[in-house]
Amino acid sequence: MIFYHGTTGENWKKIQEEGILFGIREFAKSRATYLTTDIDEAKQYGEILLQVEYDPSEHSEMNNYTESCWQ
């Protein structure tokens, strides 16, 4: 299944430094990455768009998947 992740140039640098697409939620002091199947929604979060192939059924115990969004 194809998902998209929109990000800023600054966050893209962090993703490249860490080598993993794993964001930070400052308000919760935890880590999460939001993906969507809607490319237009992903564009709202930054000028850099990443395409991710992911099968949420393979990791159902670790994710928060709904019909169009995965965290």
Summarize the structure.
It contains 2 helices and 6 strands; from the N terminus they run βαβββαββ.
Task: Kindly describe this structure.
The relative contact order is 0.31. The strands form three sheets. The protein has a two-stranded antiparallel ribbon. The protein has a two-stranded antiparallel ribbon with strand order 2-3. The chain has 71 residues and is an alpha+beta fold. A hairpin with a 4-residue loop joins β2 (24-25) and β3. It starts with a strand and ends with a strand. The chain is globular. The model has no long low-confidence stretch (mean pLDDT 78). It contains two helices and six strands, in the order βαβββαββ.
Topology:
Elements: E1 2-7, H1 9-18, E2 24-25, E3 30-31, E4 35-36, H2 39-43, E5 48-53, E6 69-70
Antiparallel strand pairs: 1-5, 2-3, 4-6
CA(first)-CA(last) distance: 14 Å
Question: How large is the count of helical segments?
Answer: 2
Q: What class would the helix/strand composition place it in?
A: alpha+beta
Strand content: 25-35%
β-strand number:
6
Instruction: Characterize the main sheet.
Output: 2 strands, antiparallel
Order of strands, main sheet, comes to 1-5
Shape: globular
Any idea what the radius of gyration is? 12 Å
Regarding quaternary structure, how should these chains be classified? Answer: single chain
Descriptive terms for the model:
single chain, 71 residues, alpha+beta, two-stranded antiparallel ribbon, globular
